[in-house]
Amino acid sequence: MHVNQPEGPAGTAVLLHGFTVFAVNCITSMNEADLALFLDSFESCIQDDRFIRIFYDTFLGSSEEVRALFAQTDFALQRRALRASLYVMVAASARRQAELSTLSELAERHRALRIKPHHYELWLQSLLSAVEQCAEHFDTEVARVWRDAFRSGINYMKADA
């Protein structure tokens, strides 16, 4: 992970695999230590080739309804889309609430696919299961910072469902 300095009221610019994520510490619920813990964990997971596969195995196994939503899915394409969406969610969650509108296109696609609010809870639980299996270190604190990192984005998506 590469963190650009300086830090200040504007936050920290973090470069993850070519994506710049501006983490605004004073606006999110994460303090600097939580943000560092999350970003280290995120980086270790996203580099693990098993991460996305484990997530989808878990998510599809979470309910018949979820399985049906993905019945006609090209998973090679879907895995790439999820990877990109994770970066968008992280970036959006790290910014001001008003800037969550960067998720509007994703929310529109999900609404068209009839994604319901409870699906996001299954999604998050499946994501945490994949993190537990792929992160270099996993404990209750890692789980908490992952939930914190995705909370704003998930709430935005659920409100638009």
Provide a quick synopsis of the model:
With 161 residues, the protein is mainly alpha-helical. The chain contains 7 helices and 3 strands; from the N terminus they run E-E-E-H-H-H-H-H-H-H.
What descriptive keywords fit this protein?
globular, 7 helices, Globin-like, about 160 residues, mainly alpha
Question: Mind sketching the topology for me?
Answer:
Layout: E1 2-4, E2 12-16, E3 19-23, H1 32-47, H2 50-60, H3 64-69, H4 75-94, H5 104-112, H6 117-134, H7 140-159
Antiparallel strand pairs: 1-2, 2-3
Helix pairs in contact: 1-7, 2-6, 4-7, 6-7
Overview of this structure, please?
The protein is mainly alpha-helical. The protein has one domain: Globins (Globin-like), CATH 1.10.490.10. Helix content is about 60%, strand content about 10%. The chain has 7 helices and 3 strands. It has helices spanning about 30-45, 50-60, 65-70, 75-95, 105-110, 115-135, 140-160, and strands spanning about 1-5, 10-15, 20-25. A 3-stranded antiparallel sheet has the order 1-2-3. Helix 2 (about 50-60) crosses helix 6 (about 115-135) and helix 4 crosses helix 7 (about 140-160). The longest helix has 20 residues, at about 75-95. The chain is globular, with a radius of gyration of 15 Å. The N and C termini lie far apart (about 35 Å). About 30% of the residues are buried.
Under the CATH scheme, which architecture would be assigned? Orthogonal Bundle
Mean pLDDT: 78
* SSE series: EEEHHHHHHH
The overall number of domains is: 1
Radius of gyration: 15 Å
Report the portion of residues in β strands: 5-15%
Shape category: globular
The major sheet is characterized as: 3 strands, antiparallel
